[in-house]
Amino acid sequence: MPPEALPPGFVLTGGWRVLERLGVGGYGVVYRVEPVDSPGRYFALKLTRNTAEGRALRELTLLLDRAVHPNVVAVHACGRWPDLVTGHFYFVMDWVPGPPLHVWADQHNPSFRQLAETFRRVALALDTLHAGDVLHRDLKPEHILLRDTEGDPVLIDLGASAYTGAPTLTTGPLPPGTRHLRSPEAIRFHQRHWRHPDARYQSVATDDLYALGVCLYRAATGHYPFPPDWPADVLCAAITSQPPVAPSELNPRIPPELDAIILRLLEKLPEQRFQSGAELASTLAPNRFTSEAWATPLFGTDTPAPPRKPPSLARARVRDLETRLSRPVLLVVPAVLLLLAVGWLLHGWRQTTPRVTPQIDPLEGHKIARHANSHHSEAVTDSPRANPIPVTVAPVAPPLQDPTPVMKPPAPPAKPRAPSLARLSKVALACTGLACSSSTPYVQHRPIPPVAECPAGADETHERFGIEQGDQFEGSIGENFGTPFRNITVKEGYLMTNVHRKFKKLPAGAQLVTEIIFTNERVYGRIREMRVDGDVYPVCLVYYEFSDVGRQRLPGGDEEHAVIFNLLHVRVVERFREILGKDW
Ligand SMILES: Nc1ncnc2c1ncn2[C@@H]1O[C@H](COP(=O)(O)OP(=O)(O)OP(=O)(O)O)[C@@H](O)[C@H]1O
User: Fold this and answer.
1) For residue 181, what is the domain's CATH number?
2) Does residue 334 belong to any structural domain of this protein?
3) How many domains are there within the chain?
4) Locations of Pro residues compositional bias (predicted)?
5) Ligand 1: distance of its center to the CA of 153 in Å?
6) What confidence tier does 248 reach under pLDDT thresholds 50, 70, 90?
7) Binding positions
């Protein structure tokens, strides 16, 4: 039985009876359970979805040892299912009966004073974690549950937390996290270092405090400072350089002091934020908020606040572009040409980008920023953008695993060219928040990618999933397993290939983080990392066609874009080779 499908009444090894499923996250599924020998006492049981339990053990270690606090969920037992030794790992913690923070704010509609008190307690809990060298790193409204309607908060999900001596979870520049709650400095770091395999962002307390500011903004206004469903590059650019709309502009009931506190938490520079949970907590001390404004509920029911506009995507696009255009190489271009390009781009973007559609909550009369599902932890990703070629695939962040050193021949120097309007537009189009970290917009002649070794541990993964060198299976690029199948446009960088159908023990839908490299003739896909049910495995796979590594480029594309068909073969290899036509 799959771990996420245990029915009510099912009893797990260890004597825990399942009552209901509370949630499914990236790595675990959480059930409300009761002990068989003590029915009526409720607990939450987090069961890993995969038998590899790195994150769960880490979380358990923290909850048992370092993160013991009345406002952090307490853990009581652990075990494995179905087999005591080899089964899925689980741990049992307090069941928190109330809703997550944003749902509480929207539906219970507490007073500003209650909200401040809830956040004061979260700030104190954070301060204790930080004092013990623990960083939460994935604070979001979904991870702050309310114990009761008064708003006593409980922090959950420390699976991504950092603590001294903890095993590293990822080997990319950023730790796991959720994009719209990442701090500006973390995103800036990613923009600068995503091509550098050894770069690691060191989270600090002010990252958690920034995320807490995002949670507070969401609770007090019904919106995120920057909507999570914005295209990734625009969202990242907005987080790093666009000031958020003042919360009081979205919800005029917000007392000025709270407005200032939220904006300070969201400062772009960490040194301008609160420096510790304790500092924030003292600013939120209840005796400071005596005015009438603090006693009012967050949102009006009798006289609903006039709907205000959430931050505009078009404005963010302009700022994004402004940021990019301020790069020195472009300063020499006459302003009039820039304006023309901006106008043209905005026109194109308006037609091609999703819009943020506010949805009115009928109960409270305030708007809730709409976003697809709950937001699971993820790495920063890039996004599709306006492109003259039909379908562009969204690149993703580089792999989480240790990239293997690549034996690179010296790169041919890029030809300097004088800026022209055509080139400018092209650069602006091709230049994403992440891709902008590269200083060369494009090169004309691309070398065949050099030989590189497989990442450490790939053999073990192959064995685990029953695949061996020379095996070939179908992969597809794009959401919905790539369907409908079609020609797509890819850029160099990273994108996600899916295992298209089950192959040996490889499940359909397993995600293959693929490095795309292309020459003038071929597109190479090198895969060093596979993600299955939230777990990450090193692998050594390549795109493959007939007896050749890589895929033929189809007509279309340009120096920046290559067109390929999105259903393709993936082959297990012993190393990444460079020679065309070489049989395996
Ligand atoms: N102690 C608890 N009491 C009540 N509900 C809980 C508890 N712990 C978790 N949940 C519910 O289960 C959901 C998933 O839990 P959690 O976030 O810990 O899983 P995850 O796999 O780490 O997810 P993510 O992908 O967000 O990191 C939570 O969003 C929450 O709704």
Assistant:
1) 1.10.510.10
2) no
3) 3
4) 398-416
5) 14
6) very high
7) 46
Q: Per the domain annotation, does 293 fall within a domain?
A: yes
Predicted local distance difference test score (pLDDT) of residue 34:
97
The answer on 69 and 148 residing in a single domain is no
**37 is in which domain, residue-wise?**
3-94
Same domain flag for 154 and 277: yes
Nearest atom in ligand 1 to the alpha carbon of residue 28 is 21
CA atoms within 13 A of residue 185's CA, in its CB half-sphere: 20
CATH number at residue 12: 3.30.200.20
Domain assignment present for residue 212? The answer is yes
Nearest CA to ligand 1 atom 1: 95
pTM, two decimal places: 0.61
Identify which of 20, 29, 30 to mutate to test ligand 1's pocket (most ligand atoms within 8 A of the CB): 30
- Looking from the CA of 462 toward its CB, the CA atoms found within 13 Å total 21
> Would you say residue 372 has pLDDT above 50?
no
Q: 81 C-alpha to center of ligand 1: Å?
A: 19
> Is the ipTM, as predicted for this complex, more than 0.95?
yes
Poorest-confidence range of 81-90, 233-242, 513-522?
Answer: 513-522
Q: Which residues are annotated as a binding site for ATP?
A: 46
Residue 125 Cα, ligand 1 centroid: separation in angstroms? 18
475, β-bridge pairs: 499, 568
Same domain as 89, residue 135: no
pLDDT confidence band for 52 (50 / 70 / 90): low
Using alpha carbons, select from 233, 236, 379 the residue that is nearest to residue 225: 236
For ligand 1, which residues put their CB under 6 angstroms from it?
22-23, 25-28, 30, 44, 46, 73, 93-96, 142-143, 145, 156-157, 159, 376-377
Other beta carbons within 10 angstroms of residue 333's beta carbon come to 16
At 539, which CATH number?
2.40.128
Q: How far apart are CA 226 and CA 242, in angstroms?
A: 9
**Residues 138, 262: one domain?**
yes
CA of 17 to the centre of ligand 1 (A): 18
Instruction: Give 534-555 as a DSSP string.
Output: TEEEEEEEEEEETTEESEEPBS
Q: Nearest C-alpha to atom 26 of ligand 1 is from which residue?
A: 376
